[in-house]
Structures are given as C-alpha cells and as structure tokens.
Amino acid sequence: MSTLKGIQGFGIQNRSSDPTTFITGQIWYNSTDHAFRLTVSGTNVPDAWATGGSMSTGRRFLGGTGTQSAGLAFGGDTGNQTSPRSSALTEEYNGSSWTNGGALGTGRYGIASAINGTQSAALAFGGVLPGNNTKKTEEYDGSSWTNGGDLNTGAYYMAGAGTQTAGLAFGGLTINGGSPFDSNTNTEEYNGSSWTTANVMSNRRYTSGGAGTQTAGLAVGGRNRDNNTTLTACEQYDGTNWSSGGNLGNAAYKGAAFGTQTAAVACSGLPGPQSRTELYDGTSWRSSTTINTARAYLAGAGSQTAGLIFGGGPQTTPSTATEEFETGNPATRTLTVT
Question: For the CA atoms of the chain, what is the radius of gyration?
C-alpha cells in the first residue's frame, strides 16, 4: 500500500508550532492549535480576520487566554468609562460559540492573564477593585477558579505571558489614595503557587500587550503615564533580563496581543480606536490585514497562525464581538478534521 512517506518522502509530523519553511504536499498536526495543516502548491492567500461567535456579555478591559478553538474570556468592565461595573463572568469558546464557565472569585476589570495558558489551566492576576488595585491571583481548572498566590505588587492594566505554572506579569498602574499615579516597570514570575520579583523593564508601561512564555516573553507597546507617551517600543524577556525588540510600526495602547516572542500578533488599540494588525518575527513587525471592527480595551488569545480577539469597544459600549485570525502563508491551508 502506498503511504504519504513513500509518495512525498516524509510522514505526518506532530509539531507544537507550524514550520517556518514549507514543502509542497507536506502535512503536519499542530498540537498547540489542535489542527491538521497541509501545504498546497501555488496558493497565495492573504492574512485574514473572520467574524466568530459573539460573547453573551459585552466587556472591556477583560482577560483572555487559550487557543482559537478553546478560548477563555474572564472578568472585565460591563459598564462605561464614567461608571465601570466589574464582572466576574467567565466564558469559554469552542471555535464557533461562547458558553458560560465558572465565575471568578472576585470580579474585577483591568485584569491580566498568562496569555499562553489554556482553557482548562488559566491564570488571572491583578486588576481593579473598588478604590484600589489588587494583588489577587486566581487559577482556573476548566470549571472553577481558586485562589493562587498574591502578586508582590498590586497593579491593574498589567500585561502577562506564560502559563498557569510558569506565568509572567509586567508593567501596569498602581493606585495611591484612589488615583492612579504611576505606570511601572515591575516584572514578576509565577511558579504555580507564588510570585517572585524579577528584573525590571526599561520602559514604564501600562495597557501594553503581552505574548510568549516566562523565559521568552514579549511586551508590546503600551503607554507611559509619567510623560503621556504612547509607545512603539517593544521589549523581549529571556527569563532573566529584558532587552529591546523591534519597534511597532504604529504606536498603540489598550490593544490586544498574542502568540510567541518570535511569532506574535498585535492589533487594534488607541489612539483611534485602531483597526491595524502587525505581525512579529522576533526581530521586526510587518503590517497585516485590518480587523473588521476597530476597537480598544479588548483581549486576545491563540497563535499567529490561529488567533482570537474578543470584547473591547468604545468607551461607552462594551462589545461582544469576536474575530478569528489566520496568517495567509503563500502555500498553506488548515484542514478541519471531524
């Protein structure tokens, strides 16, 4: 009997990420995205955003993690800029629709997450409680949230990377006397039970994007409140120190980011709101196709080849919108297997 290996010279590989170069006829299983992919000759498909299923409740400043086919949204603000209302709601995405999951123990907005966690092993930390920021950390097991170890420094509008057992928190705002007074450079690492203070970033930033892992993290854009500067600067973390990465083409804050340090996506945000999308290869950013609905204050999840954004909106109306992203590698198609 003929086999793929006999015909094409290679078998079906199990990979955690897509290859960086493609061979016509190559097929592999992406264990991160849970999808088979096939290289098709002579196809030139652009990057694309597609509309996904709407969330049940519109929220801004929410947390997100997981994959395109198993995403997780939690916390956020269901009110508006002048009258925020903290939410404890959790929703789970199956690739087409959202359903309610277990509620956070403490509802809050401006919450951060380990962006590369999963739907059944998520990490949420920081955020805004009435009158103050919080050190609170919670862990999700696919059905309910339980308390984890507190951050050393409470903050909101932080960014995060990593997983539930190897998380990374950085940046954010701290509150003094009821008013935000400082965007910070703080970095903390989580080991599954407690946080440890790590080396600081070069740039003060809040509402930045986060991507990558605890040992290969990425801080994307954001805003420095001290001088009211919106940043193009990105920084890369190697598990010990931060160093400068490639600058964004467009300065932005309060947008979404997801992916890895060498294959990240950054989209939307302020000033605007923006509809821009940029892709990172570990060195530089390139412009990509715009999202369908320009907005800010949203969350993201997934990978550069199979991404997900949800929520956000203008200042007055939280959005339920979900969009799915797929890079248009010139010769690759995603196969759906049932």
Answer: 19
| CA-based end-to-end distance of the chain | 24
Which DSSP string do the residues of 268-303 spell out, in sequence order?
--BTTT---EEEE-SS-EEE-PPPSS--BS-EEEE-
Domain boundaries 48-325, corresponding CATH code: 2.120.10.80
Nearest-angstrom CA–CA distance, 141 and 101: 10
Domain ranges for the chain, please list them.
4-45+329-335, 48-325
* Closest to 101 in 3D by CA, of 37, 165, 55: 55
Residue type, 314: P
CA nearest to 271, candidates 230, 309, 232, 310: 230
Tell me, what amino acid is at 6? G
- Beta strands 63-66 and 71-74 are antiparallel
CA distance linking residue 229 with residue 328, whole number of Å: 33
**Residues 6+ positions from 259 with CB-CB distance below 8 Å:** 211, 212, 265, 280, 302, 303, 304, 307
Q: What is the pLDDT along the chain (338 residues), one digit of tens a residue?
A: 555 555 555 568 888 887 766 666 778 888 887 878 777 655 556 899 999 999 999 999 999 999 999 999 999 999 987 888 999 999 999 999 999 999 999 999 999 999 999 999 999 999 998 778 999 999 999 999 999 999 999 999 999 999 999 999 999 998 765 555 688 999 999 999 999 999 999 999 999 999 999 999 999 999 998 889 999 999 999 999 999 999 999 999 999 999 999 999 999 999 999 999 999 999 999 999 999 999 999 999 999 999 999 999 988 889 999 999 998 765 555 554 54
